[in-house]
Amino acid sequence: MGKVYVFDHPLIQHKLTYIRKKETGTKEFRELVDEIATLMAFEATRDLPLDEIEIETPVAKTKAKVLSGKKLGIVPILRAGMGMVDGILKLIPAAKVGHVGLYRDPETLKPVEYYVKFPSDIEDRDFIVVDPMLATGGSAVEAINSLKKRGAKHIIFMCLIAAPEGLKALEEAHPDVDIYIAALDERLNEKGYIIPGLGDAGDRLFGTK
Ligand code: PRP
Ligand code: URA
């Protein structure tokens, strides 16, 4: 089974409270999602491999560590996942970005795929799939299916708020995928919204309704 990491860092928890509040407007919501994504990426990249190289400081020769150059890819689930991409790219600017377009059918709550574009060297990259919300888990499971079907071997999933139902579904469908979340909420309501959650992440990010 993959590992589940819940980030209890005070900065993440504080910012999360403000994106939950219903009176938080689009501009602030977008900025906070971006900041939380950066903070989560900092933790989620903790195990990136390092190489040792010889360098010269102004006063001495020494050995120092640099990233070994592992190829990374970020895959936002459209639309709301887009809100997390720039925050992650601030820390790993060389990562390539693939996209998977999925929307939840409002009746069945099942994901419907409408767009896929991944980097061509998919088999050589480690991927971070991002979406602010893990509700029933259908979208995350489908996005990861889509990556694996095309050859991706190492994938982690990062979201802001998860429902227990979605977490269980994702763990069962993809036991090899580590899951990083900022908060584990109580449950889903009858319309598939996370309670207490933050409402519709895509609408709040992009100012649509
Ligand atoms: C939201 C959210 C996730 C999905 C989560 O997207 O951003 O992608 O729902 O729900 P699930 O875990 O039950 O699949 P939505 O379908 O509203 O599309 P949008 O991002 O385009 O608004
Ligand atoms: N998608 C959202 O944007 N919010 C939810 O609460 C559930 C799914």
TrEMBL record:
Pfam families: UPRTase (PF14681). SUPFAM superfamilies: PRTase-like. Its cofactor is Mg(2+). It catalyses: UMP + diphosphate = 5-phospho-alpha-D-ribose 1-diphosphate + uracil. Its EC number is 2.4.2.9. One of its GO terms (biological process) is UMP salvage. Pathway: Pyrimidine metabolism; UMP biosynthesis via salvage pathway; UMP from uracil: step 1/1. Keywords: Allosteric enzyme, Glycosyltransferase, GTP-binding, Magnesium, Nucleotide-binding, Transferase. The keyword Metal-binding does not apply. GO terms for molecular function: GTP binding; magnesium ion binding; uracil phosphoribosyltransferase activity. Uracil binds at residues 194, 199-201. This is Uracil phosphoribosyltransferase. It comes from Caldibacillus thermoamylovorans.
